[in-house]
Amino acid sequence: MSTIRLAAVHAKYSLLETMRVPIAVIGALVFPALSLLFFVVPQKAVAGDPVFATQAVISMSVFAVMANSLFNFGISISEDREKPWDPYLRTLPVPGMSRVLGYVFSIGLMGIVAILPVIAIGALFTEAEASVGRIALGLLALATSALPFMLIGICIGYSMPAKAAIAVVQIVMFGFAFAGGLFYPPQLFAPWLNSLSMFFPSRQARELVIWAVQGGELEPWVWLGLIVWTAVLLAVALVLFKRDEGRRYR
């Protein structure tokens, strides 16, 4: 069986395991949608302006994907490491890449599901607008910008127990959301905070998706920042994976 087929099997059973706890799915769907509904829709100056409303929908979509990646990678990997099933899986003649891709497929599908309510609320209750082609380009940019958050989740999952991972994921998620301008437009930041915000992957992800959907000029710090975050976090994730393997499977 090929690596891709093995990854598809792993993703299928990961999704079935998640579906057995419906509140886990509901939580991923509800929070970003409620944030848009309660904090953006009532503000007519934002909801009634096509440019600001579209950027608000994009910010909540980035937040939905970020939260989904951090929680599912960070906590799922951390919990799996504490179960007897995980050592058994490692004894099977299956490449490690198939498990990683299985996580990416299942968590990526959950991320797509998480942004659907946000897009629906934005289309129904705000003046947000974009062409089909721009929406498709925005989804591609959103998937690309999710890589640093997935890798941060992997680093958390392989570096700490489940109880600690839950707390750390929450701190990272809200810290990145506020600092990245996902809850509060960065145009209203103080100059020093705006400069600091540009170093966060959440801000870079927001700007990349806005550029994909609304056009305009893409500043170099956006794509350079995402490349640097991805490269550094990939190296750290590989080191932590090897360290975990060395500790438990000598």
Features:
81% helix; mainly alpha; single chain; 250 residues; 12 helices
Write the layout of secondary structure elements.
Elements (H helix, E strand, L loop, with lengths): L2 H17 L2 H18 L4 H4 L2 H32 L3 H7 L4 H30 L6 H14 L1 H13 L2 H18 L11 H7 L3 H14 L5 H29 L2
Helix pairs in contact: 1-6, 2-4, 2-6, 4-6, 4-8, 4-9, 4-11, 7-11, 8-12, 11-12
Structure, described:
The chain has helices at residues 3-19, 22-39, 44-47, 50-81, 85-91, 96-125, 132-145, 147-159, 162-179, 191-197, 201-214, 220-248. With 250 residues, it is mainly alpha-helical. The protein is globular and about 55 Å long.
* Shape descriptor: globular
Distance between the termini: 27 Å
Mean pLDDT: 86
State the helical fraction. over 70%
Oligomer: single chain
Largest sheet: none
Give me the number of helical elements: 12
Q: Please provide the count of β strands.
A: 0
Low-confidence segments, ≥5 residues, pLDDT <50?
A: none
| Structural class estimated from helices and strands | mainly alpha
**Residue share in β-strands:** under 5%
Q: In sequence order, what are the helices and strands, one letter per element?
A: HHHHHHHHHHHH
Rg (C-alpha, Å): 19 Å
